[in-house]
Amino acid sequence: MQKLIEAIVKPLVDYPEDVRVEIDENTSRIVYKLSVNPADRGKVIGKHGRVAKAIRTIVNSASGHHKKKTFVDILD
Predict the structure, then answer these.
(1) Closest by alpha carbon to 34, among 70, 72, 7?
(2) 4 and 54 in contact (C-beta within 8 Å)?
(3) Which portions of this protein are annotated as coiled-coil regions (predicted)?
(4) Domain ranges of the chain
(5) For domain 2-74, which CATH number applies: 3.40.605.10, 3.40.430.10, 3.30.300.20, 3.30.420.40?
(6) pLDDT by residue, tens only, the chain of 76 residues
(7) Geometric angle at alpha carbon 76, from 32 and 26, rounded to 5°
């Protein structure tokens, strides 16, 4: 899933080398923590959060076979 998030985000940003995805997993959920260059944060979030919502939708449907809740957080 980490590679999927990186594959989606890297073409959107000006600094793809700064894209990092960390995984925080416990018994009931998986949180993918996405960090990008501060100059690219707006591109990843999009107008009214549309790009961020699309990324979350793709990740949720790709992880449908997991019994854990899946979240994508965009870090400051």
Answers:
(1) 72
(2) no
(3) none
(4) 2-74
(5) 3.30.300.20
(6) 899 999 999 999 999 999 999 999 998 899 999 999 999 999 999 999 999 999 999 998 988 777 888 999 999 7
(7) 25
